[in-house]
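> run fold Progestin and adipoQ receptor family member 3 isoform X2
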Amino acid sequence: MTVSLAAKTEVQKSDDNENVDCCIDRHAADYDHTESLLQNCIRTEENDIWNQEKNRKSIGDDETNIKRLFTIEEVPEFIRHNPYILSGYRGILNAKSCIESIFWWTNETINIWSHIFGYCLFVALTINDLIVLRIDAPFLDKFMVAMLLFSFQTTMIVSVLYHTFSCRSEEDMASFLCFDLLGIALSLLSIYTSGVYYAFWCHQGLRQFYLLTVTLIFILAMSLQIPSFNVDTNIKMATFVSWAAYGVIPTLHWTISMGGLENPMVRLFLPRVIGMYTISGTAFLIYITKLPERFFAGKFDFLGHSHQWWHMLVVLALYYWHSTGMMYVEYRMNHTCVDNFNYISYEA
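> ok
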């Protein structure tokens, strides 16, 4: 019995040792598996960070690669401003490199230089109109011309800044885009203000009414640009289009109040207004349809794509309206309200 019990005890001890060893082995295996998973996660995270750093450097920050241009698949989403422009993109650049890129040949070069030219043009016109010509006009007329040209200069310079620094970061792109839209709004406001100012020269009530309405629309359009409001881009664009279309109302009102085409002033200036709408409408149509690159993707990446046409037509439209404004000034210097035949008075 003693031997038997000892054997039994020995066997039991052996079984207990095996169970302990089994538990230890299982815990060790679980620990090894967990440690392996953690190591894999760490390696994966390190690889992701390394790949992100590699990609970041590959699109601009590497000094040896800084002037390299990229295809649309290689750049971040915020730089892809047109799905039909497939190449010629700058990488993510610092401020110094963004300025240097003005002199590179990229898909932004014409966009930048077209409005640098526009800015210089309107500065020259300001000097010519206010200093060289020495027009003997009332102060308010000179102020109106100065405001118009200053707004045009602002539109040009903020556009240049946007297209120059839009590749610096997504935050910078969004900020400069807001300034770009502000420049467009300022030009629209100055165009309306100058047009209403001269068109309703002889009717103070109507002039004040339309100046107030276009100013209120300007405030609305600008408030929609506030980032915290998170307004949809299509709504912002629709606001600008509606604002531009609103100009038809004072134009028709002015035409009717002046007696229609029988009035020589209407015959002189109504075609100018129609011409302005024709140029602006053509520019906007090209802008939204992305012609011609829509049908020839990749063929107009550097020269001839829609945004370049948009820029050049904007400069043309603003210059055209400046010329119209100078015609208004000259007309008002040589004619009084009595000379405006068939003017219909709305005063009681």
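Confidence is low (pLDDT under 50) at residues 1-14, 44-57.
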